[in-house]
Automatic annotation (TrEMBL):
CDD domains: PDI_a_family, PDI_a_PDI_a'_C, PDI_b'_family, PDI_b_family. Pfam families: Thioredoxin, Thioredoxin_6. Signal peptide: none annotated. Its EC number is 5.3.4.1. The keyword Glycosyltransferase does not apply. Belongs to the protein disulfide isomerase family. Disulfide bonds join 9-12, 351-354. Residues 1-88, 300-430 form the Thioredoxin domain. This is protein disulfide-isomerase. Gene3D superfamilies: Glutaredoxin. GO terms for biological process: protein folding; response to endoplasmic reticulum stress. Residues 445-462 have a biased composition (Basic and acidic residues).
Length: 462
């Protein structure tokens, strides 16, 4: 296994101790013919290019010159389990209590089947289920004393199966039909902790999970003592459907940035349903965090009956400028007005490219101020959201043609000049327009001669 890394990469720095620990554990467990290695891609540019390294860290597993991308969790246990499954049997036999104790000590979570025989149909079903789980070790035994160490009664009816993990919920006993699909469903639903605390290390576990919908509890470390047990209890009813995540509000390293991303302010406990990275919808639980309210909220989240929440600044009291100010709560009124062609810039106040664009965008709006069918607008994407305002970065410029607002907007991919924007609008506007003639009357005192000649200025540029 080879990790391509960059010394400055934060994700690589987080992986480093886990990667080293995985190498140590493989050596201690006697796994032979497997080497864990690292390549500094900033020094070995040609080698990184040869293997199409696009980001850091990139980890490949090489067998007989062929390489396969490792995209599992970046933890010691996940790496060790993945390698063992690729290099040996998918299910390992345990015959002594010494082996069992060593496995229980070194693994965060394991699956053990207590069978009548280590070969045969039941063992085959277990093996078939295990191949669906690259990051989880499967074991089997016929020894009653081994089964007892794994929380299975020595006199239990066989086949019996248990999933053990180092969590508040330490073990889960399987009670379904002993076949691949049922075992896989049981393991999938129970392998995660009831509640995962958000950290840099657990972020990949959360966001790369097959379960996309997340229930997030935001609470300080003091408040967590009362609300976290309630949150954990609610999680028991939604295994395999939702990931329950605790975000510690008073953790400056991870809690604060996550809270800012979700628009959470203050120190009071709050619960948010998050639909994941595909559409990024958020749903807020109103009021006090109680078990009954949590369960009802989570069920509504699963059933898609909740109304999503979008961040918004207050609607401006006046909005008479050449560039109209759009916030989440007036987006429909301004941008989705079917009688207007709308050019919308989604920006961030700290974005240098946005700051460079501002005088150009203002100048364009000044030129077009007399055309009633066109609205030039902007929205701060860091403090406002709307389902129709998708931004891949700042600035993002979108065009919403009149009479066609039910369709996705057009992404404006043109030179960032007044003339280029004008030509784009002339081509794409649903309502034809033309520039009015410049005023020829004398300017009154205090008038802006630059504005009054703006039409001529643009025509000269064209």
């Amino acid at each position: 296994m080879v990790e391509f890394y960059a010394p400055w990469c934060g994700h690589c720095q987080s992986l480093a101790p886990e990667y080293a620990a995985a190498a140590t554990q493989l050596k201690e467990e006697g796994v032979k013919d497997v080497v864990l290695a690292k390549v500094d891609a900033t020094e070995e540019n040609e080698l990184a290019h040869q293997f199409d390294v696009q980001g850091f860290p990139t980890v490949y597993f090489f067998v007989d010159g062929e390489h396969k991308l490792y995209n599992g969790q970046r933890t010691k246990e996940a790496i060790v389990t993945w390698i063992k499954k690729k290099t040996g049997p998918s299910v390992h036999n345990i015959t002594t209590t010494e082996e069992a104790e060593k496995i229980l000590t070194s693994n965060e979570k394991v699956v053990l089947a207590y069978l009548d025989s280590l070969t045969g149909p039941e063992s085959d079903e277990l093996a078939a289920a295990s191949r669906n789980e690259d990051d989880l070790s499967f074991y089997q035994t016929v020894k009653p004393n081994v089964a007892k160490l794994f929380e299975i009664d020595a006199d239990a009816k066989r086949p019996a199966l248990v999933l053990l993990k180092k969590d508040v919920e330490k073990f889960n006993h399987f009670d379904g039909k002993f076949e691949k699909s049922a075992i896989s469903e049981f393991v999938f639903a129970n392998k995660l902790p009831l509640v995962t605390t958000f950290t840099r290390e657990s972020a990949s576990v959360i966001f790369e999970s097959q379960i996309k919908k997340q229930m997030l509890l935001f609470a300080t470390s003091n408040d967590s003592e009362t609300v976290l047990p309630v949150f954990r209890e609610a999680a028991k009813s939604f295994k395999g459907k939702l990931i329950f995540v605790y975000v510690q509000l008073d953790n400056e390293d991870t809690g604060k940035p996550v809270a800012e991303f979700f628009g959470v302010s203050g120190d009071e406990p709050k619960v948010i349903g998050y639909s994941g990275n595909d559409d990024g919808k958020k749903f807020f639980l109103d009021g006090e965090v109680t078990l009954d309210k949590l369960k009802a909220f989570a069920q509504g989240f699963v059933d898609d009956t909740l109304k999503p929440f979008y961040k918004s600044e207050p609607v401006p009291e006046t909005n008479d400028g050449d560039v109209k100010i759009v916030v989440g709560n007036n987006f429909d009124e301004i941008v989705l007005d079917e009688s207007k062609d709308v050019l919308l810039e989604i920006y961030a106040p700290w974005c240098g490219h946005c700051q460079s664009l501002e005088p150009i965008y203002n100048k364009l709006a000044r030129h077009l101020r007399g055309i009633d069918s066109i609205v030039v607008a902007k929205m701060d994407g860091t403090t406002n959201e709307h389902p129709r305002a998708k931004s891949d970065g700042y600035p993002t410029i979108l065009f919403f043609p009149a009479g066609n607002k039910s369709f996705d907007p057009v992404t404006v991919d043109t030179d960032r000049t007044v003339v280029a924007f004008y030509k784009f609008l002339k081509k794409h506007a649903a309502i034809p327009f033309k520039l009015s003639k410049p005023a020829s009357t004398p300017k009154t005192e205090g008038s802006d001669s630059k504005d009054s000649g703006s039409t001529k200025e643009l025509k000269d540029e064209l």
